[in-house]
Amino acid sequence: MRKVPYVAIVTPGTFAIPSGKSSSVELVVENVAKRVSGETKLFVFGKKTKRLPSREIRDGVVYIRPQVRKKGGYIYRVNRELKLLQPDVIQVENRPRFVLFLRKRHPRTPIWLSLHSLNFVSRPYISRVQLKRCCEAADLIIVNSEYLRERITRLVPGIRSKVRINHLGVDLERFKSRWEDEGRRLRQQMMTGQGLEGRKIILYVGRWIEQKGIHRLLEAMPDIVREVPEAMLIIIGGASYGSNRITPYVRELYRLARKVPKHVRFVDFVPHDRIEDWYRIADVQVVPSLSKEAFGLVNVEAMATGVPVIGTNVGGVGEVIVHGVTGFLLEPDHLGEHLPKAAVTLLKHDELRRCMAEQCLRHVREHFTWEHTAARWLDMIRER
């Protein structure tokens, strides 16, 4: 009889874990795993890379990285390890098809599906019929927002009773507020090092793809600069995770930036273990997503550093930002009119920013830490 349950977490196998260059899926798994390792025996499966060993223990978590020689072979190798391990629970991260594959091979083991976005529950990845079979094969489905729960239960009616919400979090030890003594010192150091002293910083962090709405933010910059001449927009990220590819959309962003050349700076992909330095220098963060934003970790990370967020009221963003309290929620169809006004209001009024920053910190501490996320997950394990 095992003293603690053995839980196997199967990440997609696309990115390494742990790694500063992974997607948010691996980031979530890593942060929750190390906070529950004392209550469970956790085995996390991920991609094998040259720098990472096939097997290691970190923070009490066993990481297993099968060597894959053929495309599509990852889940087969994972399954081979699972047969030896015989876990009490298998949790699949963001790949519904893996659930069906493993269900056929582990008919008596509880299998959970943890969904992070809508990308893999719709075409071209999966048909509606296939999705239904995958969701029905899962014993529990975990989502990161009420929005995602509503979307998945609309796609697959009849599964609502086994869908649970677990909001994501942030590490408050790392993401120190820019208003505290240590955060203030680190901020000044970063501002000086980047040659940004005297500037009011607008920050965007994320992928450079059309649905993220970065072009709408750049289109707003001439109006913002007219009112706040010291404004500087910093755009951090890349066309995909860890990539600095120049896509047609990225070229369009560069073209728009040339309209205000002294007020926009592009920063290539920053590993997650260094991103907090950039959040701290921001006066406001803008998340102008146009659709499909299930949660948005960047929202809580910015708020943890004492930065109010201007976001669009799409997907689960409204579950994180409190309009008029921790930032502003704007309708995506009216960004052209409302985004410049919201940004100028925050950049011009220091006291308003400070007041919102205090509310941001309180909101994050009460609702959005990894400790909260881990505690909810452990409750599910105990209830199984």
Question: Could you walk me through the main structural features you see in this protein, from its secondary elements to its overall organization?
Answer:
With 384 residues, this protein is an alpha/beta fold. The protein is built from 13 helices and 14 strands. The strands form two sheets. The protein has an eight-stranded mixed beta sheet with strand order 3-4-2-1-5-6-7-8, sandwiched between helices. It is globular and about 65 Å long. The model has no long low-confidence stretch (mean pLDDT 95).
Distance between the termini: 17 Å
Number of strands: 14
Helical fraction equals 25-40%
Task: Give the overall shape, derived from the CA principal axes.
Answer: globular
Instruction: Round the mean pLDDT to the nearest integer and report it.
Output: 95
β-strand percent reads: 15-25%
Draw up the topology in text:
Blueprint (H helix, E strand, L loop, with lengths): L5 E5 L13 H13 L4 E5 L9 E4 L2 E4 L9 H12 L3 E5 L2 H10 L5 E5 L12 H10 L2 E4 L2 H10 L7 E3 L15 H13 L6 E8 L6 H14 L3 E8 L9 H10 L6 E5 L7 H6 L2 E4 L9 H8 L4 E4 L14 E4 L4 H14 L1 H18 L2 H14 L1
Parallel strand pairs: 1-2, 1-5, 2-4, 5-6, 6-7, 7-8, 9-10, 9-12, 10-11, 12-13, 13-14
Antiparallel strand pairs: 3-4
Helix pairs in contact: 1-13, 3-4, 7-8, 7-11
